[in-house]
Design a protein that fits this description.
The complex is a heterodimer of chains A (425) and B (313). Chain A is 30% helix and 24% strand. Chain A has 13 helices and 18 strands. In chain A, the strands form three sheets. In chain A, strands 1, 2, 3, 4, 5, 16, 17 and 18 form an eight-stranded mixed beta sheet that branches. An eight-stranded parallel beta sheet of chain A has the order 6-7-8-9-10-13-14-15. In chain A, strands 11-12 form a two-stranded parallel ribbon. The model of chain A has no long low-confidence stretch (mean pLDDT 97). Chain B is an alpha/beta fold. In chain B, strand 5, helix 6 and strand 6 form a beta-alpha-beta unit. In chain B, helix 1 packs across helix 11 and helix 5 crosses helix 6. Classes of the chains: A alpha/beta (425), B alpha/beta (313).
């Protein structure tokens, strides 16, 4: 089977390409990237006027399987990924049971092979059960094929345990992706601690709670030589700390979500629990700082923290009772393009880089580029297509998004994994 | 009078004009026999949290408008573990009840269920969010005493962080150009107060100097557990309202408290029972305000707030 993706604007930062090229995908691999590839007997996909980019990579999703399949399954979550243009995802360990043993890793790998059209990579919990007390067995987990260790969303509060977890991560050459939150400062917290929490009469999640653990983890990374990846950065202070850490040569990388690039805590007043997540939406100053951080490379990549929940959980009670988390796979490209790229705040190259090459390199995934000989994971985006976010049409089981009804410009129209078109819209 | 909606969930969404109209309505109700205004109507008092004074206040108010009243206590349960508030309202509505007064430990819990029922929903305190009838009676009390609200200085002392009474008062009084100051240890002053136009200080004496009203909040013993105060005794050393401290305040300065009082912790006997105290006026006015709230909700239709109109109803 061969497909010739013809006449699109190929944006492939890894190969320093941004221009009109044809991409030939044969036998599951990219075989030619050229100015004018002859059609021959290949199936032609007309990409004129569209962007052709490496298959997008989301290094922070919650597929909720095993154990939380009312919220999402590997099948529905990866369908959502495909619709969002993602060809690879890294799934987080807070499932039930927690991903802390080779058995659970293998379960996910088998399920993915059976039911997922996109590549599913696994992050295992740095501690057993995600309890922050005893280390998971890294050797066995590495052999089972995990791509990273993580404590998302349950910060390892004991600094000694975290230090040892990082040392093990380094021992087995695994990055460690961390959710930074001082758990004792955020008890009963619902939204960012500030004007909105005051008005709503709910406890807040202070920015300092994130900053304190961010700082601690950076210092531990410096001490242990571990590769630290900071999940969902949301505060101006954290951006500054990462900038300084990188200058000092510490092995730290960071991701930011589309929603933190776009919304403040005021969104909670409009959208209720559909704008409730952790870390929470914060202030305009924080939004500005993370945008600048993404632009100057302090923040390396974009990741959605796709976190589906059932409608009952999100809407059945009050804001205080709703669980944290919003979905993001199917709106990521649209939001980033509308609010940043089309607004002139981000170049197409930077966007593509932050969603392909860089996350691939951080977690050592193959892909993130359209190099001849590599897997044919390709995403086609119509940069000008306008569309309205309609959650009821999502492939994800989750409907918990603050962007419902929003009009966006920029849409994924084709997703290809290993040379096979898995989504066309 | 024109009441903005079928419910009274908060004072934040009232305009100054609406609040003023309501005060005039309450003035009128106070001077009239309102016993027919709730005739044939029923109100259920639904308490998911302890309440004595607010409950009794509403019961007496219901009696004054001639409405039937029923009191129910329920346990606040988490989503998915029992009957939803929406279903509880539906059940009560199906019994032909007209209004429900609810007190609940969770902030903002009433908004959605209120929108799904035809019952008039009156918030008697939701978590740390709002206590609208308390703010209405407090503002009305101040207005009665001073003949106005504009330009007055109100200092609120105590556990503002957890106080729905404080929040509602800040919302309502700021609509009337009242200058607001919040005083307490830094642990009890929430972030974001400045967005309300409220000045904050940890210096009680400074805050008392120009105050027209000192509004004292209750300190709960449980706050010791969470490192918010080292002990109630220590809190009292800094913030207990005594006659001596009030001596530095204006001679016209009055003291208010939403109750129940922890005598000796936030306020002394001398002050609570002294000449500056409006505390028991607040209780009396609470019945009048809640009577007016029920009367207004039971007789919702555009009307002028004249005494004549009230009698005519």
């Amino acid at each position: 089977m061969s497909v010739l993706i013809k006449g699109g604007r190929v944006i492939d930062p890894a190969n320093r390409l941004d221009g009109t090229y044809d991409i030939l995908v044969e036998g599951g691999k990219v075989t030619r990237v050229g100015a004018s590839v002859p059609t021959g007997s290949h199936q032609v996909y007309d990409a004129s006027g569209k962007w052709v980019v490496p298959g997008l990579i989301d290094v922070h999703v919650h597929l909720r399987e095993p154990g939380q399949t009312l919220k999402e399954t590997i099948k529905t979550g990866t369908q959502a990924a495909a619709r969002g243009g993602f060809t690879s995802v890294l799934t987080m360990p807070n499932t039930d049971p927690v991903i802390d043993s080779p058995a659970v890793v293998e379960f996910i790998q088998l399920k993915s092979k059976e039911q997922s059209l996109v590549r599913v990579y696994v992050a295992a919990s740095v501690t057993k059960g995600g309890l922050g007390e005893r280390l998971s067995e890294a050797a066995g987990l590495k052999a089972a094929g995990i791509s990273a260790l993580s404590d998302d969303p349950f910060t390892v509060m004991d600094s000694e345990v975290m230090r040892r977890g990082m040392e093990y991560a380094r021992t087995y050459d695994l990055p460690i992706t961390t959710h930074c939150e001082d758990k004792r400062m955020v008890v009963d917290g619902v939204v960012h601690e500030g004007e909105v929490s005051m008005r709503l009469g709910v406890r807040g999640l202070p920015a300092a709670a994130e900053d304190i653990i961010t700082s601690r983890n950076i210092l531990l990374a410096e001490m242990t030589g571990c590769h630290l990846h900071l999940a969902h950065l949301s505060t101006a202070q954290a951006v500054d700390m990462v900038r300084a850490a990188k200058r000092r040569g510490i092995r730290v990388t960071a991701e930011v979500t589309p929603h933190h690039l776009v919304l403040t805590d005021h969104a909670v007043e409009a959208c209720g629990a559909h704008a409730k997540m952790n870390p929470p939406l914060r202030t305009q100053m924080d939004v500005k700082a993370v945008r600048e951080g993404l632009q100057d490379g302090t923040i390396d990549c974009i990741a959605t923290d796709h976190a589906p929940h059932t409608a009952l959980e999100k809407e059945g009670g009050s804001l205080s009772e709703a669980p944290f988390g919003i979905i993001g796979l199917e709106t990521s490209v649209g939001i980033v393009m509308t609010e940043l790229v089309h607004a002139g705040l981000m170049t197409p190259r930077r966007m593509v880089e932050a969603m392909t090459m860089i996350p691939a390199d951080i977690f050592r995934f193959p892909g993130g580029r359209l190099t001849e000989g590599m897997a044919g994971d390709v995403t086609v985006i119509d940069p000008d297509q306008e569309w309205t976010v309609e959650p009821n049409q999502f492939a994800s089981k989750g409907r918990n998004t603050p962007f419902a009804g929003k009009r966006l410009k920029g849409k994924v129209i084709m997703t290809m994994v290993g040379g096979e078109i898995i989504y066309e819209g | 009078m024109i009441w903005p909606s079928k419910d009274l969930l908060d004072v934040a969404s009232l305009s100054r004009e609406q609040a003023e109209e309501f005060f005039q309505y309450a003035d009128a109700c106070e001077k009239t026999d309102v016993s027919s205004l709730g005739k044939g109507k029923t109100v259920v008092l639904l308490f998911f949290e302890k309440s004595t004074r607010t409950r009794i206040s509403f019961e007496v108010a219901a009696g004054k408008v001639g409405a039937g009243v029923s009191v129910a206590y329920a346990e606040a349960i988490s989503v998915g573990k029992g009957e939803t508030l929406e279903d509880t309202f539906r059940v009560i509505q199906s019994m032909g009840v007209d209004a429900v007064v609810v007190r609940h430990p969770i902030s903002g819990v009433l908004e959605r269920p209120a929108s799904k029922t035809t019952l008039s929903v009156i918030n008697a305190g939701d978590g740390m969010h709002e206590h609208p009838t308390q703010a209405l009676l407090d503002a009305w009390t101040i207005r009665k005493r001073f003949g106005k609200l504009d330009g007055l200085r109100v200092t609120v002392v105590g556990d503002i962080l957890h106080s729905r009474v404080a929040r509602s008062n800040f919302h309502l009084l700021s609509k009337f150009g009242v200058q607001l100051t919040a005083v307490g240890p830094a642990t009890l002053l929430p972030a974001g107060l400045s967005h309300f136009g409220v000045q904050t200080t940890t210096d009680l004496d400074k805050a008392l100097i120009q105050a027209d009203v000192v509004y004292v909040l209750r300190i709960q013993h449980e706050r010791q557990q969470k490192s918010l105060i080292p002990s109630v005794g220590d809190y009292a050393k800094g913030y207990l309202i005594t006659a001596d401290r009030l001596a530095k305040a204006k001679s016209t300065c009055v003291v208010m408290h939403p109750g129940p009082m922890n005598r000796g912790v936030e306020i002394t006997d001398q002050v609570a029972d002294g000449p500056r105290s409006l505390i028991f006026d607040q209780v009396k006015n609470g019945v009048a305000i809640r009577t007016a709230v029920l009367a207004a909700l039971f007789n919702r239709r555009p009307a002028m707030t004249t005494r004549r109109e009230v009698i005519a109803l």
